[in-house]
């Protein structure tokens, strides 16, 4: 039957491909799903009697949407901003060989069998040093601007499951990965967690939870944090590293309670700054950290973590702090996290292990060093044959690294080595966290201030002192960075800022920090600077989230369904609760362009070349064969026609050339 003079194919998988039109596909889909039409009982009044046929929803043809995306990138360039002009590697990494059968059992089996308390006992009783692999999160957050896609993680995941079953955990979620997945990669972060869990059933997963900030940059109602942790646990998360950017205990305890109530392993993290081995540093002393640890243990943490986000732990300080914590808590597992910005990360971790740490954080060699974590291969090799032997096969580490060395080439436009050629021991002076160090370096170069990065780092030190010498980790590190950039852009010194505090228009993040929006810093707020800036502005007393009304999840879900249809999941609701605007933009993107996660990374970033042929696997058993044929001339209205061959049939897509339109109106 051909009721509208068109070629209509109805494959068994439920997708309808309607050839020969570019304008009325949604209307035709409504007709094809109408019961009266399917029964063949229509007459000439059919359309008049069914106005709902004109309730048009975006088409669900995934192939057509992908062509639309590819055409858009070919005409207008990448949809995600590229910090540098480097091109993605044209060569995909080779997936390491994986043996047949299920992976060997690991510590996750202990966790599932004995629960968080039994898991913690097993970690403490374990002989040898345990490693957490940060390659799936913090390593690429530090080196590649958090841009690694789920596709490239999934390709190596089976190898990790089979080769590294003795890992303590894999850090693969939380932190910046949650919003970047939606904002720049156009992926669902929950889907990443689900798919990786299926591929790696034997190794515990670990996430970074920003206390009362969950995975965001602000405070949320308490019930939102609890609901988020429940969903994370249900979707495969095991260990929750809970921290607060100011070590503000009330915020940390809320996150700990949320993770614990969800059934997760609670790993309370003490954010480290200063130098406990330097007697001249009197604010963040050994006694300060020990007292904070006492409170976290009292609050019920299963594991205690030292989170050294800037890589400030020197070997002597590492030995002193870990040794004191081990003496104070002989049965509690200790976990140490650092960055290798100075180049001394391996030495600091070896000192921590010798002082009694049970677990340390590493990244695979090709994703280690500089602002990332110390090298996995180095730690495996240095402990081999000793009481700290990790038991990990070094040759498998080499294979793992080889994959990532090639995969890293796919992300060349985001690689910090484009502007930063080595680590720098000046981090001991400026105390800039690893990921932020990379971002500030990129920003300085993109603004033409690459030769002034030293000035930016000096301003960061002064901004930190103006704000009272803060613990610096997201979001407090962003506040210090915002003030530092404000000072550089306006040519202000510390003395200028403090003298003119009543008259300057400070960044909003600085003002909100002084109001108390993220908590109370150790030692209190800086005065009289705070009073000069705030004047009569309101101030938050106590834990910021305590005064927020509970989030109405039912109302939020109903609102989302009214805009996006009935395919909204409970996880979508949480994504919208954490990042309302980012989620809306993500849904709009997927409605227009479909499942871009199935594209190779090079194609995702820069699109195909003319005459390039490639395959896209939408799902198992459904593969598209695509060839990019040509770009048409710029037509009236600023559109170009992009021609493809899809499964042997000619297809064309109309794309608005935004770059040409900007040129016509003289925009920069």
UniProtKB/TrEMBL annotation:
GO terms for molecular function: pyruvate carboxylase activity. CDD domains: DRE_TIM_PC_TC_5S. Keywords: Gluconeogenesis, Mitochondrion, Pyruvate, Transit peptide. InterPro entries: Aldolase_TIM (IPR013785), Carboxylase_cons_dom (IPR003379), PCB-like (IPR055268), PYR_CT (IPR000891), Rudment_hybrid_motif (IPR011054). It is found in: Mitochondrion matrix. Residues 80-104 are annotated as: Disordered. One of its GO terms (cellular component) is mitochondrial matrix. It comes from the Eukaryota. This is Pyruvate carboxylase, mitochondrial. It comes from Alligator mississippiensis (American alligator).
